[in-house]
Design brief:
376 residues; two-stranded parallel sheet; 1% strand
Length: 376
């Protein structure tokens, strides 16, 4: 990815480079952060506004645009999923790490509101799963990691042949086996394991959604809320998880710093550029193909799956002392430029490349012999 990003620098104007960085998640070598970046708390409020606008856009499209809604809904759905995912994996996540405002009380409010609106993990549940387990080096990426356990439940078991793992991946988005546990967990974390304050927040929010459902017809409510809030959100979470780390690919927890670092990588949204010097017709065809991939593959990947700072998620693990996650793209590149010992530039993948790498690790896992359902 480092060389590909250099090529983008060479072939696109200078004024586009920060836009490319924000889209792809990969800063150019030597690139500095913009002089001003939206402060996290302001950005959080903008996320709430974005969510409201996206839902209203879906309602408007269904109610007034007729068949043209088919062209508008994919945009409003992606915008909705992007906002919900940010509430979960950006604001709720970084609030638990106390990295939103720097004030633990304000961050707690951010987490409660974000998780209640997105109907995702309450503070205590995310702290248990994410801080005490996922960030515990004795648990990280092992079968004890909560994400590993969920993937095993879905059928991604050590020792399963690659072809079968791919089939599992293709059919899982359409399986109740994915959606029912998500829905069950979202009910439990909002109304059973949550504190009374969190339960009140969830009850108020769900009550507002029920009222909207009563005021709207079934088609409007389904297309504005059910599809993006449940189905598409669960799809995005699946592809984020299955590409994030090499789950169950090793026999045990990381034994050293280098072992731990090897289990972390970045996922960037860049497509290779057409070669130079081609005949005009051939060049136009390849550029059209590049544009189509950027629009229909990389855009959903970036705004649905790898939201916010997730492309540079390895920095969160490899340099945990860097709490300025909203500068992650540029800080990560600065570490690479300074020859940081983690050599993060050696572990940069596309989303599809990361998925394939994770599946290969599960298939070849040394845990296969002890895994029920494994073929070894």
């Amino acid at each position: 990815m480092e060389e590909l990003r250099r090529e983008y620098v060479e072939r696109f104007p200078g004024w586009t480079q920060q836009l490319i960085t924000l889209f792809a998640g990969k800063a150019a070598p030597g690139q500095k952060a913009p002089a001003w970046i939206t402060p996290p708390l302001v950005n959080w409020f903008l996320t709430l506004i974005q969510l409201a606008a996206a839902v209203l856009g879906s309602i408007y499209a269904v109610r007034f645009l007729g068949w043209y809604a088919a062209a508008v809904l994919p945009v409003t759905w992606l915008t909705t999923v992007n906002a919900i995912r940010k509430l979960q994996v950006t604001w709720s996540h970084h609030a638990v790490h106390k990295e939103v405002s720097g004030n633990k009380h304000i961050d707690k409010v951010v987490q409660v509101v974000s998780s209640a609106i997105s109907l995702t993990s309450n503070y205590e549940d995310i702290f248990e799963d994410h801080i005490r387990n996922h960030h515990n080096r004795k648990v990280f990426t092992t079968v004890k990691d909560p994400d590993s356990r969920f993937l095993m439940y879905l059928g991604f078991r050590p020792g399963t042949p690659m072809a079968q793992l791919r089939r599992t991946l293709y059919r899982t988005p359409f399986s109740p086996r994915l959606h029912l546990p998500f829905i069950t967990f979202r009910i439990r974390t909002n109304f059973i394991t949550a504190t009374w304050i969190r339960r009140i927040a969830s009850t108020v929010w769900v009550g507002a959604l029920v009222l909207l459902g009563v005021l709207m017809n079934g088609v409007e409510f389904t297309l504005a809320f059910v599809v993006p809030w449940l189905v598409l959100f669960h799809w995005a979470a699946l592809f984020q998880t299955i590409s994030e780390h090499p789950w169950m690919a090793f026999d045990g927890a990381p034994a050293s710093r280098s072992d731990y670092v090897s289990r972390c990588w970045a996922r960037f949204c860049l497509e290779p550029l057409p070669a130079r010097g081609l005949p005009a017709a051939r060049s136009a065809l390849l550029w059209a193909r590049w544009l189509a991939k950027m629009l229909f593959i990389q855009t959903p990947a970036r705004f649905g799956v790898l939201v916010s700072d997730l492309p540079a998620h390895d920095l969160h693990h490899v340099v945990p002392a860097d709490h300025a996650w909203h500068y992650a793209f540029w800080h990560r590149q600065a570490h690479i430029d300074d020859a940081h010992e983690s050599r993060m530039d050696q572990r940069e993948l596309s989303l599809t490349g990361a998925v394939e790498y994770v599946l290969a690790g599960i298939s070849l896992s040394p845990l296969a012999a002890s895994s029920p359902g494994g073929d070894a």
